[in-house]
Amino acid sequence: MGLARTGELLEAARGAGGGLGAFNVVGLEHAEGIVAGAERLGSAVVLQVSERTVRFHGERLRPIADACLALARAAAVPVSVHLDHATTPELCEEAMALGLSSVMFDGSALDYEANVAATAAVVATGHRHGVAVEAELGEVGGKDGVHSPGARTDPGEAARYVEATGIDALAVAIGSSHAMLRKEAVLDFELLERLRCVLPVPLVLHGSSGVADGDLERAVRSGIVKVNVGTELNKAFTDACRTTIAPTEVVDPRRYLDAGRTAVAESVARVLRVIDRARRAPGPDETA
Ligand SMILES: [Zn+2]
Predict the structure, then answer these.
(1) Model confidence band, residue 145 (pLDDT cutoffs 50, 70, 90)
(2) How many Å lie between the centroid of ligand 1 and the Cα of residue 109?
(3) Rounded to an integer, what distance in angstroms lies between the CA atom of residue 27 and that of residue 31?
């Protein structure tokens, strides 16, 4: 229990035919809520700090990363700490030096050859530090990479990309997108099956907040291992704070931050229950 390595959590989840919830941290209360939700279910969990959150914290990774690492060490379940959507190798290297066990290098703004070269360099550094590297393969010319709802990962290109870069996990484009407030994503399960067949690494679903529970369960059964959730927690957190503040003259931030943190814990527990159902449900080969 306590601080775990993302690579080991991914392999354990995949080996058990299940998924691994990875939740985006904004501040300390988010991180505390995420760990509390995971402890409620007895599930392993990933705390993710994105480059945007680093920017929010005055361009400093260390204070929020150290807080996450401290919470992980004290947790009653395995918790790893991950850097999400880093667009520079320097930020990835800083995360490795701070003791995070995985990073996502986002080279989706680069063209294919430049993405391969930059990602392979991050992987080489990561593997020297025992750090797992996740990456994504953006559409050539696409602006939002794997996160535009129309983007699709090409299985052949993805297989070449994994081989050429040596990455440990791949974020795939199968129909989800970031920042969806409603669960309206339409996932391409046929493509997911094909990706699972040709790719040797665990697959990652970004934008899982926009995926309906039944589809999320099916996605995990169909090969998604790491399930990234951010927006759903932010919505729960903000709704709870708003409800607490609105009718009163409350000035003590602890009042509404506590409500927000509790709402995050409940959301995390809810998502982890959905992921857990996938592991318990019969796989595609067992339904016949
Ligand atoms: Zn993402």
Answers:
(1) low
(2) 13
(3) 7
